[in-house]
Amino acid sequence: MASLLRAVNISKAFPGVQALADVNLHVERGEVVAVVGENGAGKSTLMKILAGVTTADSGMLEVDGRPVALRSVTEAEHLGIVLIHQELNLAGNLDIAGNIFLGREPTWGGVLGLIDHSRMHDDAAHITGRLGLLASPYAVVDTLSIGQQQLVEIARALSLQSRLLILDEPTSSLTESETALLFRVLSELTEQGISILYISHRLKEVEIIADRVVVLRDGKNAGDLVGDEIMHHAIVQRMVGRELKQFFQRHRPEAIAGVHPVVSVRGVRWSEQQKGIDFTIAPGEIVGMAGLMGSGRTELAETLFGVRRMVSGAVAIDGVTIPIRTPADAINAGIFLIPEDRRVQGLILVDTVKDNISLTQLSSLSRFGIVQGSQEDELAQAMCQQFNVRTPSTSQTVANLSGGNQQKVVLAKWLSRTPRLLIMDEPTRGIDVGAKSEIYALMDDLAEKGAAILMISSDLEEILGMSDRVLVMHDGDLAGQLRRNELSEQVIMHLATGGAAKT
Ligand SMILES: Nc1ncnc2c1ncn2[C@@H]1O[C@H](COP(=O)(O)OP(=O)(O)OP(=O)(O)O)[C@@H](O)[C@H]1O
Ligand SMILES: [Mg+2]
């Protein structure tokens, strides 16, 4: 039997970048194929071509052995190919059913404009039930968690009789339990003969879910792995073309007794319901912050950075209490935040890479209010090199970079200054393994220079690998503090889910 989908010698160029060069890919019925590669390797571009979002410059696509031209998303959907984007694409103000059937609402007797709401909601409930989504089809999408929104997108794909579901980094914002549910759903779908193309930087997931792994490097095929060959180190080796010797680069200094903390947080609250948060971070210390989604980690970061109003409490930097009312107050005191939602908070997408990197530097780069163009460019080039940002030039518009490379620009923007306290909210989400390791090395470097780092992360491996000490949040308050020798996934999860701390 012919493959469900075959892509032959696909090439695609953008100004200054050959995003794909003669790439080949095939997907069989009921098969899960993972596509992996470094940031900018061409994964999303290839998926967009398969889903009719964009067209290739050359190459051929076949569905069921027949050549097809996919000139639009609708044409691809008619053939059963549905892409769920890296950034979800839902109408937040509509309800679940409205989103699933957007543009295809069932009507009364086929009369245009007369939507049969009860049928639409019944049909929606049927599909969401199949996916284990425990929300009413009348629930407005904005009120759902990211994981639930993901399931709504999958429900939409199923309602289109999808035969090939393409998921571009579906788990990057999901909790562990949402990820587990997604995997259960995906394996049920494959049992029904539906095929999955799965993109992820989480290689552990790839090991679990993939029947075959297709590796892209610099827009070219860099080998396929099947069955027993699908192992972390083999994947990494093909992705980056070398072995990564040390992944977590943390050189822990001897404990320095009696040093004054860089930061001390006392009774900080952003809501009346909280007890108040207390902690300190010593110079050179990397403190991990674990907790479930919604436990208040991001709110804490926002409060310390002056984006969210502090109801009560005090923050001192190097022993001096700093009133933090705005981000400018925080930045002046040396507190920087690398936000969780970088696309919204961290970048000006229509601006160039150069402008984005230098935005935080303007005071030091400008003389009499005029930005020195050449210095700006030098700094941007140096940072792009350090972080391996894949871009044809620093004058490229940020919106045109791949997802992970956009993230690296935000990191470069903040790490090009020397902070006293650096707060990183999910610093490596969506970032490839090689770049992750570079970021860890930079954190280690900053710590060595005496900065304090607060690293918020849902990636327990990262928390265990990088932290000198871990704070666990639960329900808006600190549930416990763990020293390095007390750390384990079990203890962290116990505290994060509301278990009592040992005393
Ligand atoms: N619309 C565009 N205009 C210009 N260049 C683009 C455009 N879309 C993608 N590119 C470039 O094509 C290359 C491949 O990008 P793509 O988004 O496919 O990477 P990716 O493998 O999905 O990376 P990531 O893991 O970071 O999401 C990158 O160099 C990117 O900058
Ligand atoms: Mg991508």
Q: What do we call the CATH topology of the largest domain?
A: Rossmann fold
CATH hierarchy: architecture of the largest domain? 3-Layer(aba) Sandwich
Under CATH at level 1, the class of the largest domain stands as Alpha Beta
Radius of gyration: 24 Å
Helical content band:
25-40%
Let me know the largest β-sheet. 6 strands, mixed
Beta-strand fraction estimate: 15-25%
Low-pLDDT residue spans: 362-371
CATH superfamily of the largest domain: P-loop containing nucleotide triphosphate hydrolases
Strand arrangement within the widest β-sheet reads 6-7-8-3-9-10
The structural domain count equals 3
Structure description:
By secondary structure, this protein is α/β, with parallel strands linked by helices. It folds into three domains: 5-240, P-loop containing nucleotide triphosphate hydrolases (Rossmann fold, 3-Layer(aba) Sandwich); 262-334 and 419-503, P-loop containing nucleotide triphosphate hydrolases (Rossmann fold, 3-Layer(aba) Sandwich), CATH 3.40.50; 348-418, no CATH class. 33% of the residues lie in helices and 24% in strands. The protein has 18 helices and 22 strands. The protein has helices at 43-50, 73-78, 96-100, 117-130, 146-159, 176-191, 203-209, 232-240, 297-304, 327-332, 342-346, 353-358, 362-365, 373-387, 403-415, 433-448, 460-466, 489-496; strands at residues 5-14, 17-27, 32-36, 58-63, 66-68, 81-84, 164-168, 195-199, 212-217, 220-226, 263-269, 277-281, 286-291, 312-317, 320-321, 335-338, 366-367, 370-371, 421-425, 452-456, 469-474, 477-483. The strands form five sheets. A six-stranded mixed β-sheet has the order 6-7-8-3-9-10, with helices on both faces. Strands 16-19-20-13-21-22 form a six-stranded mixed β-sheet, sandwiched between helices. Helix 14 crosses helix 15 (403-415). The longest helix has 16 residues, at 176-191. The model is unreliable at 362-371 (pLDDT under 50). Bound molecules: adenosine-5'-triphosphate and magnesium ion (MG).
